[in-house]
Amino acid sequence: MTKNVMIVGVGGQGSLLASKLLGYLLLQEGYDVKVSEVHGMSQRGGSVVTYVRFGEKVYSPIIDRGEADVIISFEQLEAARYLEYLKPEGRIVTNVQMIDPMPVITGAASYPENLIEKMTAMGIRVDAMDCLSLAQEAGSAKAVNIVLMGRLSRYFDIPVEKWQQAIRDLVPAKFVDINLKAFDLGRGE
Description:
alpha/beta, globular
């Protein structure tokens, strides 16, 4: 059975490394994996979506509405924006950070309030945490992506050591310790 993970965020937040890490780990576990290219504005500030699909045999990298088992979100509004892709029994793993999109920056709109509470009230399983603070605690605000991967790892039946090895394999050596600490803080054990 194919599993579907969407990674949504804002350009410049590290969603590419997150999808690469997840895809690499799943390949190591023997799954057929398809990772889509990044869709959207990959420049800093634009909405970005990456699909990671895995299973015994995966034919397409695209996830349709109602198919995502998990949505990993770097920012609250991005989680809300892609709700229609979540399966009824799916889960959202999100950073509580709020990054103003262009309409809010220009004053044409205001940032929606209480998004986490609203999603939870809709019956959606939301695991929300302050990933930015945890990333800073680990030593770099840029490690939000790895904090999210740490949190995501709680929902996969893959040993922690294999996640940690994937980080060692993919992250430049000088950033490995920060990223391993970010992963542990995100996992929350």
